[in-house]
């Protein structure tokens, strides 16, 4: 009951954020806040408290939703989380759903951003992310190694120094959505080199490489144990998420071989 009241108060505060705050602040403001937050010493215990506002959508485990609406944020690089929060807050990345939750009134300042990012980065990742049909993985692997691994790493581990996200273990449907938004320019804070690079991809190449990425498994020590629930939120009422079945390679009959004409 206490937690439900807390969630209601969070939602009310998010919806009543001062409209003047929602005016654009720009990438320069975001860059200053990122630089400040990254060099602060995070307080993990306070990060747990701040994370309560995130559980409204991301739930206590920080795992992806099956439909790709929300990403897996558990285990993500802290520097990446800091940058994305600062970019959304400064409206350098368009995310109307998250924007109210990143306001100083709810999230706090650079210290709170550093705290919650550190907390989320320590959460174990889901061992059951969704992946694609699996029928073009050879092409997907080749494309990934040629086009993506230089920045994202051979195992999709990312780069905390350059704020490049960890993409291993990410939900297949979320990867598709973000890929399309980056390519179209809807996700405005994307790396310009990546935008130009993926604009060359054909639909087949896009789905193949993202299917491959979704199957890059995180190290065992980063994965949650079966049945794990975040013990920091023992009173959280978890409503089961609708499940989307894993895509399987379709079983199609082979057409008859044509007869040779002599």
TrEMBL record:
The highest taxon in the source lineage is Bacteria
* Residue sites binding heme c 1 per the record: 54, 57-58, 98
Q: Where in or outside the cell is it found?
A: Periplasm
**Cross-referenced Pfam families:** Cytochrom_C
Signal peptide (from-to): 1-24
Residues annotated as binding heme c 2 are 148, 151-152
Molecular function (GO) terms for this protein are: electron transfer activity; heme binding; iron ion binding
UniProt PTM comment: Binds 2 heme c groups covalently per subunit.
Q: Which residues cross the membrane?
A: none
According to the UniProt record, one GO cellular component term is:
periplasmic space
Keywords of this protein's UniProt record, alphabetized? Answer: Electron transport, Heme, Iron, Metal-binding, Periplasm, Signal, Transport
Domain Cytochrome c, by residue range, is 42-124, 135-217
* Matches recorded under PANTHER family: CBB3-TYPE CYTOCHROME C OXIDASE SUBUNIT FIXP (PTHR33751), CYTOCHROME C4 (PTHR33751:SF9)
- Any idea what this protein is called? C-type cytochrome
């Amino acid at each position: 009951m206490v937690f439900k009241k807390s969630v209601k108060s969070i939602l009310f505060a998010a919806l009543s954020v001062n409209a003047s705050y929602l005016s654009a602040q720009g990438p320069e403001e975001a860059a200053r806040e990122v630089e400040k937050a990254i060099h602060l010493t995070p307080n993990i215990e306070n990060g747990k408290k701040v994370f309560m506002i995130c559980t409204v959508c991301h739930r206590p485990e920080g795992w992806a939703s099956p439909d790709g609406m929300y990403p897996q944020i558990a285990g993500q690089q802290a520097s990446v989380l800091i940058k994305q929060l600062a970019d959304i807050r400064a409206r350098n990345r368009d995310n109307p759903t998250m924007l109210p939750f990143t306001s100083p009134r709810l999230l706090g300042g650079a210290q709170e951003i550093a705290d919650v990012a550190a907390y989320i980065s320590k959460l174990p990742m889901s061992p059951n992310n969704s992946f694609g049909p699996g029928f073009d993985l050879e092409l997907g692997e080749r494309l990934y190694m040629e086009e993506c691994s230089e920045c994202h790493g051979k195992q999709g581990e990312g780069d905390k120094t350059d704020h490049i996200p960890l993409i291993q273990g990410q939900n297949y449907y979320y990867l598709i959505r973000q890929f399309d938004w980056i390519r179209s320019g809807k996700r405005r804070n994307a790396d310009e080199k990546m935008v130009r690079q993926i604009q060359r991809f054909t639909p087949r190449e896009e789905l193949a490489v993202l299917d491959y990425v979704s199957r890059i498994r995180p190290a065992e020590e980063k994965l949650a144990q079966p049945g794990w629930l975040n013990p920091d939120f023992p009173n959280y009422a978890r409503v089961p998420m609708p499940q989307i079945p894993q895509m399987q390679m379709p079983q199609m009959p082979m057409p008859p071989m044509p007869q040779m004409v002599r």
